[in-house]
Amino acid sequence: MAQSLDALLNKLEAAKNSFGRAAAAAAVRVLDQLSVATFRDVKSLIRFHETLLFLRAFPQSASVVSRTEKFLDSFQERMEKIRALGADMSDFDDFDTSGIAGTIMQDTLSFEAARWLVRRIPRSVEIAWNDYEEERAMANTWPRFIPLLSEDADVEANIPWRRWLDAARGGEHDLPWLIRQFEQLSLGETAAESNRARIELYDSLRIPIRWSLDNLKLSRTRNWKRPRKFYFHSEPLISRKEVCLAQEFGRTAPRLKRVSQHDGEAVMGMIREVMVVRYRELYGTTLGDARSVVRADVGRGVVIYLWNLPPNRRLPLRAYVAGVTLKNGVPINYIEAIGLCEWIEVGFNTFYTYRRGETAWIYAQVLRFLCTLTGATAISVYPYQIGQNNDEALDSGAFWFYRKLGFRSSDRALEELARREERKMSANPDHRTSRRTLRRLAEAHVFYELGRENNAENEIVSGPWDKFSTRNLGLRVNRRMSREFGGDAARMREASMENISRSLNVDVRSWSEAERSSLENWSLILGLIPRLAGWTSEEKQELVRIIRSQSGRNEMEYLRNTQRHPRLRAELLRLGSA
């Protein structure tokens, strides 16, 4: 029976690379045979689950869709059966296998993510007390909302924390009650200060949260929706060697559609679901602005959503974009891009299940969409994405994924090393880059610049953003703080605000709190620029426009404003380049 099941799974996995009517009919036959199969080991069940999800995203026919949906909607029943057999359920805890219906997850979430999860599945989430021993953190925090707890916590040993909490919360569940107490805390002079303080206070507790996925749509198993129109694959999937970024960027720019706030809220809910069941949390997926969501239908059943941050959560300098891609209604990756002027740093992660599904072509569409939205022309990929401190990227040869699409190394020595490797592969098709070399190649950013041919035969070139980092700007500011203000951040901020306001001839009394915050952050950078007071009135006015738009409703307007100030761009590059 085990061999029979294994043979059926092999046939089903082979169906991922078979196309047309005959292939669809064959896939349906295997699925029908598997409907009566009994799974007795976890690895076989995981293989089945991941193949079902892939076929749901890349189906050959409507029959394949209906079969996979039926299996996925009832997958919890198979999980219950294999649990009853005494299987080791820890195999479902890995990054690539987590989130399956019928499993239990545990993680330490940020305040915003925990609050959202409590609201999303209030009856299925709880504090994992058996894995929590942060007594000092509880002693510092809980007396704020549990009366007289300090009488016990400040002087006694062996505090019965649960008893105190149970007495205070009454019949309410522990985590919802705790979240509500933090929501009601007032910890600062302004709403923004209070919100940031309560988030920092909650996060300092590092509370482990456990939640049961049961048969929820939240699970990775059932977290898909029906698209307006399915795309059925009658021909082989587009391979990486068929994708040319220069040609893709030469096509008509994708049409961007801003969705309603209601639909934007649905997208924000979806991406939080997508991330939490994969043990992932990004700044922009937890805190995205529902009002900023834009959509692009790029063909072949692929829909991309991108969004920005709300004004009160923006980064001090760079503009931020996050996103998700749906393939026939199935979430298959997440996106993060952070930029300034015409430069953006792009993170792109296709979930393990879908990595053999036209990843290069979809990545090209994501870049087209990002550049259309942001106006960026210099695309950077940070070293982690290609293997720096990332074994998964090294194992997959991620460097060559980007290299074969036309990216070049920002480091001249590493670019020369990459070209030597290319010559070896050209001379010997069996040559494989060693892990040691891949680790070296991942020591620097790689770049793709629109309008510039990234041809390996050309002379080695460099770009203006190759050595730039906002971290360099921040370190310069801090060295100045140490040198001129004795390490006093408040005094430096006050002096910088005063000096820059005078240099730009602005009166901030009529500005909003968010605009003043933007000026405060920018003043730290502008204070590094010599002879700023000598800039022309037009340059100063445009600089003020940039600063005020940084906290405006449309974050992309801010980014595009930074692209229209050549003198500011030159100073940022000078100060931020290593």
Which of globular, elongated, flat, extended, rod-shaped describes the shape?
globular
Count the DSSP helices. 26
Low-confidence stretches: none
The average pLDDT value, as a whole number, equals 94
Instruction: Return the domain count.
Output: 4
Strand content: 5-15%
| CATH homologous superfamily heading of the largest domain | Gcn5-related N-acetyltransferase (GNAT)
CATH topology of the largest domain: Aminopeptidase
Radius of gyration: 27 Å
Give the distance, in angstroms, between the N- and C-terminal Cα atoms: 62 Å
CATH level 1 name of the largest domain: Alpha Beta
Structural class comes to alpha+beta
Largest sheet: 9 strands, mixed
State the helical fraction: 40-55%
Set down the secondary structure blueprint.
Layout: H1 2-14, H2 21-34, H3 42-57, H4 62-73, H5 75-84, E1 104-108, H6 111-120, E2 125-127, H7 135-141, H8 149-153, H9 161-169, H10 174-184, H11 191-205, E3 208-212, H12 245-250, E4 257-258, H13 261-276, H14 283-286, E5 294-299, E6 302-307, E7 319-327, E8 330-340, E9 343-350, H15 359-374, E10 378-381, H16 383-386, H17 391-396, H18 398-403, E11 408-409, H19 412-427, H20 435-441, E12 446-449, H21 470-485, H22 489-504, H23 513-526, H24 537-549, H25 555-562, H26 566-576
Parallel strand pairs: 9-10
Antiparallel strand pairs: 1-3, 2-3, 4-5, 5-6, 6-7, 7-8, 8-9, 10-12, 11-12
Helix pairs in contact: 1-2, 1-3, 2-4, 3-4, 22-23, 23-24, 24-25
